[in-house]
Amino acid sequence: MNPLTDSLGIPSPSPWKAEMWLRFRNLFWLKLVGTTACTWLFFIGYFHLLRHPVNAVTEMPLTALDHLIPFSPQWLGAYLSLWLYVGFAPGLQRNFAELLVYGLWVGGLCLSGLALFYLWPTAVPPLGFDVSGYAGFAMLQGVDAAGNACPSMHVAVAMFTVLRLDDVFRQARTPVAFRLANALWFLAIVYSTLAVKQHVALDALAGALLGLAFALASLHWRPAPHRMEALTA
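C-alpha cells predicted for Phosphatase PAP2 family protein:
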C-alpha cells in the first residue's frame, strides 16, 4: 500500500503537513492568549521605562549605513508585521513542555532588554522633518516612540523567532520554501526598522546579537522532543 494513502485508497496528508497541523492545533488557545498576554506585559514595562528613564538618555550615533538607507514609509507594514510574525514560533511548539520552555526563554530575552533600557536609556536622533503626515506614522509615534532604542527589541525578538521557527520547519521537514519565506520575512523586518527610522544600525546590531544569544541558548537547553513525546504519550 502506498504510505501516502489509507486502507481505502484515499490520499493521506503528507507527513510534514500532518506534523504542522498537529503543532498548530495543539494548545491553540493557550498559545494565542499566552502570546498576547506576554506581549502586553512587555509593553507595560517598555512604556514605563520610556516615560520615566532613571538616567540621562543617550542619543545613538549614526553610521554610514544609516545615511545610506533613506526614509521609506512604505516599509511601515513590514515593521508592524513583527507582531504577527512573533506568534508563529510559539504557536507551532508541539506540546506544553516545549511551549513553557519557549516562553521562559523569550521572557528572559524581553526582561534582559528591559534591564538594559533601565540601566542605559537611549534614543534615536531626531529626523529633522515631520513624518506624521505619512499614513500610520502619527499612530506609530504615539505608540512606539523613538526611545528605548538600543538594543532594538524589534530586531532581537525577530532574530529569536527566525531561528526558532526555522528549527520547527527543519524538524517537520517542510519544503524549503517555508524556511526561505521565514528568512525573507525576518530580513524585511530588520530592514524596516532602519527604513522607517525607528532605529539606527547600531540598535539593530545590538538587538541581533541579543536575540542570537538567547535563541542559540534556547535551542541547546530545551526539552528533547522525542523523549517528551514518549513521556506524554
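Confidence is low (pLDDT under 50) at residues 227-233.
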